Please model this.
Amino acid sequence: MLKWLKRVIYTVLVLFFLAVGVFFAIRNPQLIKLDLVFWQGPELSVALYILLAFTFGACVALLVSSVTYFRSERQIRVLSRKYEKTLDEVDLLRKASITKELSVGEE
Model:
């Protein structure tokens, strides 16, 4: 029920940030030359450099978060295996105790 509301909110947010980006690009048409310590970039608009910086930052954030994600996925698999082994052991102990009670009851 809330999925459609979530989609609407995401769509509105994307359109808002897209409109802000377009407005920023229109208001700042001047060209700049990026000068880093060891590299000089070509003359591009301010908005394009900001867009490139944002994209680079998003890629770095994705890489960093994927490391955490894969680490947690591996831990989930290990704990699931331990859980399954524990369940099997509990079942064996229950069966052993039932068998023992039945054999004591027959005597």
Residues 21-81 form one domain. The two ends are 62 Å apart (CA to CA). The CA atoms of residues 50 and 56 lie 10 Å apart. DSSP finds two helices and two strands in the chain.
